[in-house]
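$ ./design --mode recover --in tokens.txt
reading tokens...
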């Protein structure tokens, strides 16, 4: 019984660590999202306060 619990715990730990890593598809998807957002920003007319707020959002999202 203890061996089975230890095996399940080890399996859960390995799966949880693997799920935390970002794969190449996720990285590429993030690049596409950023590109689309930049295009939308260029098409919309924004004031200086909104631009400053978005820059702050971008700085905090990169952590």
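writing sequence...
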């Amino acid at each position: 019984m203890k061996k089975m619990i230890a095996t399940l715990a080890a399996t859960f730990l390995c799966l949880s660590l693997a799920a935390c890593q970002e794969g190449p598809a996720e990285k590429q998807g993030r690049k596409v999202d950023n590109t689309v957002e930049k295009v939308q920003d260029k098409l919309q007319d924004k004031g200086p306060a909104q631009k400053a707020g978005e820059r702050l959002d971008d700085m905090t999202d990169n952590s």
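exit 0
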